Predict the structure of UPF0291 protein CLMAG_59040.
Amino acid sequence: MRIEEVIERINFLYKKSQNEGLTEDEKLEQQKLRQRYIDNVKRNFRSQLEGIKRVPPKDKLN
């Protein structure tokens, strides 16, 4: 399942929970999907951080 599909399903389950409630299986699915989304965000953020290179400051000219 692509991340876009995960987000769609998370949103669907949220709306359903507000309107009619979720079954225990749906609650479990919602938790798993939310964790998958969070893990994806963390992985992407970590990848961005690892791509950053520190540039030493230039000496001030006086």
About this structure: The CA atoms of residues 18 and 60 lie 59 Å apart. Helices lie at 3-19, 24-50. The mean pLDDT is 94.
